[in-house]
Write a structure and sequence with these properties.
This protein is α+β, with helices and mostly antiparallel strands. The chain folds into 2 domains: about 130 residues, Lipocalin; about 110 residues, Mago nashi protein (2-Layer Sandwich). The chain has 3 helices and 18 strands. The strands form 2 sheets. Strands 1, 2, 3, 4, 5, 6, 7, 8, 9, 10 and 11 form an 11-stranded mixed beta sheet that branches. Helix 2 runs antiparallel to helix 3.
Length: about 250
């Protein structure tokens, strides 16, 4: 279930140029560390800006939110914001309410190095730090048939899962333990040999099994195996593929 709401954010936000670098664009993921004078780092709040589509999304303490934004010489403007409606208790509810209230009051934006600061006049409301994602290692797995579809993408910090064609992916941050397990399994795989691996079975060629595709991107080089039956990867990549599938099953 989701709800739609309008942030009511003023159309014009003054941009304070405190950043001496040339990068003053709202792009990528920003981890929210402070709401007012409260440290909220432990709640894993974040806001993410897609510069190409002008879409904004994030996590507000209990729910995920999403919508549109516009940034130009006149300032920053948010459109209607949609949100999931998960049941939540405790401090997370209070934090989420405070964040949503802060969005409605913002009228000034400040860039400072890799941090953005959102103000209401002189009152500092939100501090968020830009996360730099290391895309030097990416796992991409997909399985599809006439009646099913699943796509999984894992980079150095997050996993993205899409269970339906033309639907919005669900994302989740990876723990250090999960990343360590993936790296340990990857070290046992000879990337250069992946393209020559023959699939153990080929039922997917006549719709006897979902078609699975798997590739690893490392240091801008793509290593891809030949299509195989979902659930029956080559023994060399079997443990790695099963770990990726296992991680994806824990995504809400």
């Amino acid at each position: 279930m989701l709800i739609l709401k309008c942030c009511g954010i003023p159309k014009t936000v003054n941009i304070i140029d405190n950043d001496t670098s040339e990068n003053k664009k709202l792009s990528g993921k920003y981890s929210i560390s402070t709401l007012g004078d409260t440290d909220v780092s432990s709640f894993k709040l974040y806001i993410e800006f897609n510069e190409e589509t002008k879409q904004v999304s994030g996590f507000s303490g209990c729910n995920r939110f999403f919508g549109a934004y516009q940034l130009d010489a006149k300032g920053l403007q948010f459109g209607a914001i949609g949100s999931t409606r998960m049941m939540c208790r405790g401090e997370g509810v209070k934090i989420e309410h405070q964040l949503n209230e802060s969005f409605t009051k913002v009228n000034r934006l400040s860039f400072l190095d890799n941090t953005i600061q959102l103000y209401s006049n002189e009152d500092l409301l939100i501090v968020a730090t830009h996360e730099i994602v290391d895309n030097s290692l990416v796992f991409e797995y997909s399985a599809s048939s006439r009646g099913s579809y699943k796509s999984i993408t894992i980079n150095s910090s997050r996993i993205s899962v899409n269970g339906k064609r033309e639907s919005k992916s669900i994302e989740k941050e990876l723990s250090k333990e999960v990343r360590s397990r993936l790296l340990a399994l990857l070290e046992k795989v000879n990337l250069g040999s992946l393209s020559s691996l023959e699939p153990p079975s080929k039922a997917h060629q006549f719709d006897g099994a979902p078609l699975a595709q798997f590739k690893i991107i490392r240091d801008n080089k793509v290593y891809q195996v030949k299509p195989f039956d979902h659930g029956k990867p080559h023994p060399i990549i079997e443990r790695l593929v099963k770990e990726i599938l296992s991680i994806s099953e824990n995504i809400e």
